[in-house]
Amino acid sequence: MLRERRESVLLDLDGLTFIDVSGVRLVVAAAEDSRRDGWTFAVTHGSRHVRRVFVLLGLDMHLPYDSPVTPRTGSRTTRTCQSPGA
Questions:
Q1: Domain tally, the chain
Q2: 71-77 — which CB contacts under 8 Å span 24+ positions?
Q3: Domain that holds residue 44
């Protein structure tokens, strides 16, 4: 559905206190789909617990994180991500 609409998606993980393998797979699949199909996808850095899961799995450097608001411009940008196999 998002593929056809080409909408930007920001997945807010900040309120999560737990994420299991199904949730991790969903995030990784969405990131891969967005790169392949040309739509914008980003995630927030998430709670401490969620960040730890991504770090332990080695995914933290491969997800398209939404950057914090920049003080000078107030704009939001997204960081370019790399595929886990790259």
A1: 1
A2: none
A3: 8-75
